[in-house]
């Protein structure tokens, strides 16, 4: 049986290896300015300028601000994760999802101090203590936020809530944001109910 820590880590991709070791932000910025492909690579990481917004008093590299569920015809349901410790009470405040509805999850986050490489979102859903699903989605690699890009937003693939009498009920979920270095930037428990209607 997989441990809790293994459960909330992204699946390993067979044969995948980082192409180069992680470097400091200063090292990336000083890389050969005459190399056109390297310039495109640096721009794709967001190293195109702007004033760094990193807070020197906050050592976190990735700060998850919110996780939202959007469904057509409904106001978004947003889990505010911006305040430290805000995730502690989420498990006790379930939100309702209508059975069979299509929805999209959206993460809003900030990066500071260094390049964040290979951020994943991993979600494990359990019902009555039994795991019913494990989903992992690659969010990507990001440079520290600047005044040109104060926050990042990632829309995940659309999903469909289960439907039918057996699917209705209470579910518990554990979500984590993990990078390529296996560092968990945030892990939290939350819950939801699948119901016949909103």
UniProtKB/TrEMBL annotation:
GO MF: Rho GDP-dissociation inhibitor activity
InterPro entries xrefs: Ig_E-set (IPR014756), Rho_GDI (IPR000406), RhoGDI_dom_sf (IPR024792)
GO term, biological process aspect, one: regulation of vacuole fusion, non-autophagic
Chief localization: cytoplasm
Region (Disordered): 1-24
GO CC terms in record: cellular bud neck; cellular bud tip; cytosol; membrane
Subcellular location: Cytoplasm
UniProt keyword annotations, A-Z: Cytoplasm
One Pfam family named in its UniProt record: Rho_GDI
Keyword Cytoplasm tagged: yes
Function according to Swiss-Prot or TrEMBL: Regulates the GDP/GTP exchange reaction of the Rho proteins by inhibiting the dissociation of GDP from them, and the subsequent binding of GTP to them.
Protein family (similarity comment): Belongs to the Rho GDI family.
Protein name, UniProt field: Rho GDP-dissociation inhibitor
Source species of the chain: Ceratocystis fimbriata f. sp. platani
